[in-house]
Amino acid sequence: MKKIFGFATTVLLTFALAACGTGSNNSADSTSASGENTKLVVGASVTPHAEILEQAKPLLEKEGIDLEIKTFDDYILPNKALENGDIDANYFQHIPYLNKQIADNGYDFVNAGAVHIEPMGLYSKRISDISELAEGATVITSNSESDWGRILTILQDAGVIKLKDGVDAETATFDDISENPKKLEFKHDIDPSLLATAYQNDEADLVAINANFAFGIDLNPADDSVLLEADNSPYVNVIAVRSGDENSDKIKKLVEVLHSDEIKDFVEKQWQGSVKIVDADAK
Fold it and tell me: Is 26 among the domain residues?
């Protein structure tokens, strides 16, 4: 009887300990009872986003957060991964693109905080100054409609084209061009990730390349572009999360760390003005 009673006591004690262990970590936003850090998975473009996040890792670790970075080479999969719950947040897109993705796909996403801006540049292997642009020249842009108004604004600011009066430059399309004195030919049917290749292959007189892809082929927007976007651009890169998660402690800490002096100093040293940290509440 003593052996049976002892066995039963052991079973009950084991069950009780297991039950306690199951309920020990009921919050995704706090350090577990065992002292383990909270995990945060963020999807990002390889450069500069993932590089910036790598610098944020040790800072977040001090805050009790283990950051895992998943890199993406395109602009479609990071939002799909966020919708599917494969990642907690993504960091690759600017505000107009996020807004369009939400409108087109019904994503229940929100902007959890602005981080940085990357000025868009137009590059050329054929000319070094916009005054050299010939009549009938070709301009290659991506098929990302959220960037069209951005590129057209750069060209308008340079006096190359003019948009129709009253058109919202942020949502302008090529049909909104009212004056095109050089009779430029626009090609806007390729994926953003292929723009750098189009430039390297000298496929046009001007190629508009998103900064992250320009960095990938060692182009510095501030130094190497023929035309560069103005500093007052609304195309700020943000942390995107599923609606409601913007109030999560780990997301708030992520945004806070990305605006720390350590990150600002790294970004300035690494990109020398081609990437600029902005205020977290920038819109």
Answer: no
